[in-house]
Structures are given as C-alpha cells and as structure tokens.
Amino acid sequence: MKITRRKFLIGTTAVVGAGLVIGVSTRRSPGEVPGTRAGTFQPNAYLQITPDNEIIFQMARAEMGQGVYHGMTTIIAEELNVDPSTITVELAGVHPDFALMLGQLTGGSMSTPGSWTPLREAGAAARAMLRQAAANEWGIAPDQVEAADGILTNSNNAETFQYGDLVDQASLLHGEEITFELKDRSEYRFIGQPSKRNDAFIKSTGKVQFGMDVQIPNTKTAMVVRPRQFGATLSSWNAEQVRELPGVVQAFEIESGVAVIADDYWQARKAAQAMDVQWQDGPIANLDSEQILESFKDSLHNDEAREVEAHGDVAVALADAPNVLEAEYDTPFVPHSTMEPQNATALFDGEKLELWAPTQGVDLTQKVAAYYSGLDADKITVNATFMGGGFGRRSYMDFAGEVSAIAMQMPNVPIRLVWSREDDMQHDFYRPAAYHGLKGALDENGKLLGWEHKVVSNSIMKVLAPDLASNMLPDFVPLTVARSIGTTLGGFIESRDPTMTEGAVPPYSTPNLNVSSVLNHQGIPVGFWRSVGSSHTAFASEIFMDEMANAADADPVEFRRQHLSSSDEHQARFLSVLELAVEKAGWGNAPEGIYQGFAMHYCFESYVANVVEVSVTGNSYKVERVVSAADCGLAINPDNVIAQVQSSIIYGLSAATKDPITIKDGGVAQSNFHDAEVVRMNEIPKMEAYIVDSDYDPTGIGEPGLPPVAPALANALFAATGQRLRKMPLKLA
Amino acid sequence: MATFILNGEQATVDVDPTTPLLWVVRDHFLLTGSKFGCGAGLCGACTMLVDEISMRTCVLPVSAVEGRSVTTIEGLGDNHPVQQAWVDHSVPQCGYCQSGQIMSTVSLLKQNPNPSEDEVKSALSGNICRCGTYQYILAAALDAAGRMSDQFYDATQSETENSEEGAA
Lengths: 733, 168
What we know:
The complex is a heterodimer of chains A (733) and B (168).
Chain A: E1 3-8, E2 20-25, E3 47-49, E4 55-59, H1 68-80, E5 88-91, H2 111-138, E6 145-148, E7 151-154, E8 160-162, H3 167-171, E9 177-181, H4 200-204, E10 220-225, E11 233-237, H5 239-243, E12 248-254, E13 257-262, H6 265-274, E14 277-280, H7 289-302, E15 306-311, H8 314-320, E16 324-331, E17 343-348, E18 353-357, H9 362-373, E19 380-384, H10 398-408, E20 415-418, H11 421-426, E21 434-442, E22 448-457, H12 460-472, H13 479-493, E23 512-519, H14 534-551, H15 556-561, H16 569-585, E24 595-603, E25 606-617, E26 620-631, H17 638-657, E27 663-664, E28 667-668, E29 686-691, H18 709-721
Parallel strand pairs in A: 1-2, 4-5, 10-20, 18-19, 22-23, 26-29
Antiparallel strand pairs in A: 2-9, 3-4, 6-7, 7-8, 10-13, 11-14, 12-13, 15-23, 16-21, 17-18, 17-20, 21-22, 24-25, 25-26, 27-28
Helix pairs in contact in A: 1-2, 9-10, 9-12, 12-13, 14-18
Chain B: E1 2-6, E2 9-13, H1 21-28, E3 47-50, E4 53-56, E5 69-71, H2 81-88, H3 98-111, H4 117-123, H5 134-167
Parallel strand pairs in B: 1-5
Antiparallel strand pairs in B: 1-2, 3-4, 3-5
C-alpha cells in the first residue's frame, strides 16, 4: 500500500494510487475563496459544510453542456459518501487552489482526468476530518465512526451526529495531520452509475442563468461595431448622430471598434445599425479563401516542413517502393456558433470592477479585464455563469476586454455587452483551415511500409499566447510586460505549434514514419475548436488509411487490425474500440442500399471508433446511422458519456456536411444561420454509443467523439459511390 | 403602448412598437427564460406561444401581439409533462436552446397529440441545438405525448366511473 505524505493543497496533480494518504488541511481565511460563508467547516477550497448540514461545492470548471456540473460533483460526493443530488453546487470564482494544467481554463477534455485525484482527495480528507471530530466527541477511535449520507454514526452504540453538527470541532482540526484512504472502485455507490443530470430541472424551466440573463438594476446594454475586415482600423464615424438616437446613453471608441450604449438591446441594436463607420484597409484587405488555398498548396509543395515525429526513413522507403500513394486533403475554417452569442456584464464602482461572464476560464478573464481596465487583478471579481455552449470559443476573452473598457468609462453603470449573431459569426476564433499532404507505400505483403503526413496550417497558440502569459506568469510581472513576453513567445512557438499536427501520428505500425508541419498563418483569427488539431488531422489520416487499405485490396477494418497489436497498450485500446464498434454495427452486413465507413481516433487520452452508414440517391446522401464505441477509462456517468458522444457526432457532422466559413475581402463572408448552416433535428442519423468497460482512470469525452465522424462518413461515401472525397464539407459529384 | 396577456396576466408596455416581443419580454418584463440566438428567426431559441401557436419572437414586433395571449417557458410552470419528460431523459446539455425546444414541443402536441417520429423532427427542425441533444429531445417529446395522452385517458376513465357510481 502506497503511503503519500503531502501538505493538503488542492490543485496539485501528483497521482496517488488507491492507498493511504496523509495530509494536513490548511485553514483558509474567510472570503479568500469566492463563495466562502462565515461559520462553515471549510476543509479545502472546494467544500463547505454548514451547521444546517448543507454541503456546498465550488465547482471550478466551466459548465458548457459537457456535464462537469454533475460529473465533478459526483466525484467529490463519492468520497464524502453522500448522494451527489444533495449537494449545493456553485460555479467557482478565481482562486489559485482551483488551478490545474492551464490555470482554471476548461478545455482539452481535461476537467475529469485533471480533477480526478484532487477532488477525491478533497472529499476523502473532509470525511476523515469529520470522522475524527466525531471520534473526539465520543472518545473513540475514528475507525469506529461511520460517515455516510450526512450522518456520522458511533458503531458501538448507534449514536449519531449530522456532518453539520460538528462544524466547529472539525474546524479545530486544521493544521493537524489527517490520514485517509480513497475508496476502491468496488465500493463506488455513485461513480459509474447511470444518473440524471443535476442541472436538468433548471434548464427545463427557464431558471438557469446564462451570461445574457444576469439581472442587475439599471443595466445598460452595449454593442460594438467592429470592422468586418480583420486588421482594418477606424477612420471616422458619425458620433453626433449616433449619440442623438433614441435610448442611446453614450457612444465612444474602444480598441476593437465603436461602442454604443443604450437603455435596452433593441435600441442598442438599432443604433449600431444606424452607425456610419469608415474603416481604413489593413494588411489583408484583399485576402480571400481561394488565395488562402493556393497559398496552402504552395506551402505544402515548396516550403520547408518542420519535423514533428519520425522513425525510420520515409524518404528512402518511398523512393524504393514500387507504388506510392499520394493524396491531399482540404479542411476549411469552421465557426463555433455557440447558441448563446458572446456577452459579458461589468460594473465599475470607481475602485473595483465586477464581471459576470460566460467564460471557459475565470482567471484568464480576470487577467484580461485587468489589462483592459488598467486595474490590478485583485480589484477585479469575476462571477462565472452557465453558458450556451463553449466549444473553445469562450477561452478567448475579447468579450471581457470590451466590457471592461466600456465599464471603466461609465462608472456606477452596470454594462451588459451583447454580441449579435452576426458579430459572433464574423468575429470568431475559427477552427484553423488546414491542408494536408499524405504519402504512403505498401510492402510486398500489402502492409504499410511508409507513412508521411505533412500539415499546413495556422497557429492557435500564437493567438492565445499573450492572454496565457498574463495568466501563468507570477503576479509581480506587470501585465503589459507579461503580455509582451507572451507575444514574443507566441512568435517563437507558432512554427512549433503542437496543435497543428495534434492527432496526426497514426497508431498503426509502420517501419517508416514522418509527420511534419508547415506554418502558414494568414492573419485570420483562429482558436481552439472542439477537438482542436484532431478535428482536421483525423479527417486526412483516417481517409488515407482507407485509401491504403484499398490499394492493398483489403477490407478497411481488417487492414487496420493488421497494423495493431494487442501487446502494445495504446494499440490494444484502439483494438477494443474497433471490435466493439464493428460488432455493434454489424460491419460487413449492412442491408441493401446502406453503405458503411469506418474511422477511429485517439484524442485527449480517449479512444473512439465510429461506423457511419449512408444511403445515396443521385448526388445527395443521407447519414442513416452512426455507431460509436468509446474508451474514456472509467465512465463517471455512462449516461453522460453517451450524451457527449452524440453531441460530438452532431457537432462534427455540421462541419462535415455544411458550407464552411469563407474569407472574402479580408473578412468572413457568412453572417447568420442561413449561410452558415448547422445540422438540424430533421437531419440526424440514428445514433448508438457503446462504452468500453475499462480499468483505466477516467479520461475526457467532451471532444474525442468528434474527429472520427467526418472521415468515417467520407469512407462510407466511397463505399457507396466510388467517389473519393478529400475535402470538407463532403459533397458528391 | 402595447397591451397583451403575458402568462395569464394583463401586461402593458410603452415601447417602440417595432420592438421584437423577445426583447420586450426579456428587457422590460425581466423574464429571461426565452433566449436570443440569432435575431433572424432562424434558430428557434426565442420561441414562445402566441395564442397557443409557437412563434419566433425575435422577429415578431410587439405590436403584432396586441390583445393576444403570450406564453413563455415561465408560464408553463415547473411540472408540465413536457418539462418532466425533459428532466427524466436528461435532455439538456448547455440548456440554451431548451426553452425554445420545449415551447415548440408544447405547441406541436396541442395541435398533434400523437405525432410520429418524423412529425416531431419536422416540427422541431426550426429549433437548433448545437450540443446535439436531438435524439434525447425526440425521445422526451414522444414520451411526453404518451404521458399527456394517458392523463387524458385517466381523466375520461374517472369521469365514466363517477357517473356509473352516481347512477347506481
């Protein structure tokens, strides 16, 4: 049994086996953790227990639909040994104890694996302190105290306390060593059980509060008019006219454009539309999608690539091979199109700034607000709200910067900044467009001899670097300096941006491999989009794998099996999702008129395999069914895993089948859901999702279901028609 | 001035008559359950019932509901069978589209109490969900239809029993 001795600080990521943990709980001063009440037992930053036996959990990740509000509550509830539905969950504010890999930023499907151990330890330590407190009251040893469902029981005589009865006594134990054990998986009452979401009621009754819904008396609504062309600058605007419009309170310039503030949304919107703004062309005034594509192709064929991963010697292997297959794949810019457009609310009282924002990182929001307001971060409070979708978009704090700048110019006036759908569509941080060159060859046995994948794309990290640096560097570094360091680092990182080739290294055994990247950054804002690099690399690599199977005259699934070995841990997990998906889909036994395609991918530590079935009529097709198999380690709530897989399928199908974002005259041509369409209810396939029974620790599932959707669909369309589609959106000739 | 019935009560508001009903309800009556998603009648997040029929209120001027009855998600209460089905099936993910989905479903079931799967899909094709909860919405809508049919059946059964007792 492993014994680990640690100072009990939440936020460390050292992994502890299911063994004895010895720690020391440090007392927090009241008010230090946002949401702290006086008179509670606060064993750590996450938990408070009130004298009325209420358990309050600071849920320190962004709930954007992916289910952490329920899942993370379930984890801590398990070790506290109470039903998760009895816990009061609050959306946590900024506190260093909540920081995991990238501070408090929610993304990369990291919430569950990152908080798996910290939350279990937090719950178990709290329960241990309560048992010790009860043991002290009864004069017995703590192992004679049972703690379950809010009740502590003396096993000798069945006397009880409620957890909340011992708030004072448990609080006295701060600073003393505590010993506790995490539950064994076999003891779990809640983790692993299908369960209903704890936020379903508020979201079915109009009670849930999104960013747009925050109600503060006397709020004014702000909108910003921005140039459609990226990089254009303000020349002139009709300030006097705008300020005279009905309901307009103020109008002035900010960094991103012209802000107009009015009594309500409709008046702000009308004023924004009445604005006559002249913009000065910037450096990409003439840029369009056709030029970008030509530039990408040119980069692929002529620019030096940066090697990301290699073994063997692909150049030699391909030069010697009798038949070399080459293919190029085209993946466009795609919008996030969160249902709730970007927004935030802020109030500056002359000294302090308070924000309410739907954000994927409250700490990052605080730092960006500090930069744009000129205030120190400790003068800024950020209140998290629920959000109408995130998908990576709300990691970019432009809305926080704008609302802060506006609020500072209007002290004591609460400002609600609202983006229209047009604003949102045209001022996104898009999934980067990418262009892929694949080359492969087979050996004399029809197996992979060599595999080369070159990715041409934009850099995401370059765009985010100033924000990240301002959040990650120590507080004594002034924000302007931190951001400048970030910009420099961003410039250094961009050609090495790992997100460009994320997911491009195939799992399949091959003696010669080369994966490389070529930076081609066109000046279009790009960012994290659900599954990030895998959203485009998997499209290329999993179609190409089918093309290689075809060249080997082999069934696509069997061809993959031949390149995976169960004696390799990573490949074995691929095999298990492959077998589960093909079994449940009846691979090879589709009825007349139904054609099947297969793809699978590893993304953010989880594995997903998809079988997609299509029917075709002329040059139109229908996605009939998608069968998915997922391995995300231990499934905290199997119901939510299935929901997330379906969610990823639908989100991925929109990108795979609908017209993309195109660039025209240096800006985005699309503006709303009529020209940037998404999958609607009457277009959905039947979806089935199956979960691999796994001994591994939990890994995320918010994103991994997405990458294998588009390539499996493309592969199904090939089976149906013989047309090899290598471009998203997928359209038959 | 516009006067209409809002969730069963008389409502009067003094605004520009072209103001969309969505913004009158959100900004003036502070009922924020109905959502803003597109401002162009394309996404369905703003759906309310006007005289029992679902309407996209982000493009419906308040003048058009003069004297009419408007029902929002708040007006359903908390325990409408459709809402109960939504909770039982854990339909919502982010939840932003769900008020509109629910109102569209209530409207559908008023007009077509026993819809087929295709009829539900068609009726709700105007309500976008970016989290992709569609298969869950479908199951919950069909389940709600069943429950509401059962309630109607139970009500008529007990009426028959009472009248038989009365007669005996």
